[in-house]
Recover the amino acids of this structure.
């Protein structure tokens, strides 16, 4: 199978603003890829370029092996910037209209309604749908042509926790059925729970691309001890300066060592006349990592 999404040095400028700069992105077959970044990072601009809604200033992109052109979206479904539906038609009738437009058989409509769990409310007018139902109907619309790749811009934006959970389950179900998903989000928890891999974008640049587990790796042994200066100089002499670093507040010391060395380090500190009040393995959560990577410039929830 060809690579679902591949961009090379993809760039979009708006006058002096570089919304997206030299972006090299790879989404692998069958994965759920989270495109994560704070507001204004360039996520929507990237997705709009992928979908041919705007033209890149420079760089290349391919979806399922195809460069932008008349066929490059044939096997791609998308949900971007709120779907538009007729308010006075039912969810089912809206999907029928969409199917007719897309040249897809109306027989797909019950299937996609079931996939997004809207069958029971399919006869209700769109105008009475909750935000979560509207999002799910949008997703159903994107699924009509049985896409191999789904591109979703902030699919859980504005949803309540139950709506977010429903959307997550649906996305994982689609991935289990073999669909590749690229979704953007500024919500760390969402990406952590839904995605296999994540690309972090900040100020138009990809700052890292890795599995969620890799992103979180790099745990440290955290020490709190008194007097802290004596503890620090002892640890530096024992482990080397490269392994010892103060945490942000300066009240704790983080050691880049294996967790199995905790007891040995404790004994060494006590022998050096230091009293240890805390010694524990500290694994950074995604939020910490994200803030570090993006220089803290996020207004994510
Ligand atoms: N049509 C446009 N004209 C000028 N600047 C734009 C345009 N579209 C986007 N930008 C700018 O490009 C940058 C990236 O915007 P973009 O919408 O892609 O970010 P985003 O990561 O999707 O953020 P959000 O989560 O807020 O939607 C921002 O500085 C934005 O102001």
């Amino acid at each position: 199978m060809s690579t679902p999404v591949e961009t090379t040095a993809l760039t979009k400028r708006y006058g002096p603003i570089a919304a997206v700069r030299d972006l090299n992105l790879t989404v692998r077959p069958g994965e759920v890829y989270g495109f994560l970044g704070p507001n204004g990072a360039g996520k929507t601009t990237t997705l709009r370029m992928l979908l041919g809604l705007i033209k890149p200033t420079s760089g290349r992109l391919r979806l399922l092996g195809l460069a932008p052109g008349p066929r490059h979206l044939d096997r791609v479904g998308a949900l971007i910037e709120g779907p538009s539906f007729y308010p006075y038609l039912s969810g089912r009738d809206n999907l029928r209209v969409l199917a007719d437009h897309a040249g897809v058989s109306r027989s797909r409509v019950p299937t996609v309604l079931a996939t997004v769990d809207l069958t029971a409310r399919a006869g209700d007018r769109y105008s009475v749908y909750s935000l979560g139902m509207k999002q799910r109907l949008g997703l159903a619309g994107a699924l009509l042509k049985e896409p191999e790749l789904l591109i979703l811009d902030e699919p859980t934006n504005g949803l309540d926790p139950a709506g977010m959970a429903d959307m997550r389950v649906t996305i994982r179900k689609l991935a289990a059925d073999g669909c590749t998903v690229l979704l953007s989000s500024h919500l760390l928890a969402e990406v952590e729970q839904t995605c296999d891999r994540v690309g972090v974008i900040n100020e138009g640049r990809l700052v890292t691309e890795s599995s969620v587990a890799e992103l979180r790796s790099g745990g440290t042994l955290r020490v709190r001890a008194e007097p802290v200066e004596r503890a620090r100089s002892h640890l530096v002499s024992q482990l080397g300066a490269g392994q010892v670093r103060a945490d942000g507040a300066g009240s704790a010391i983080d050691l880049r060592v294996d967790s199995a060395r905790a007891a040995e380090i404790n004994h060494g500190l006590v022998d050096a006349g230091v009293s240890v009040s805390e010694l524990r393995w500290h694994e950074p959560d995604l939020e910490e990592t994200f803030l570090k990577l993006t220089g803290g410039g996020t207004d994510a929830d």
User: Anything to note?
Assistant: Residues 14, 17, 19, 37, 39-45, 186 surround adenosine-5'-triphosphate (CB under 6 Å). The domain at 5-215 is CATH 3.40.50.300 (Rossmann fold).
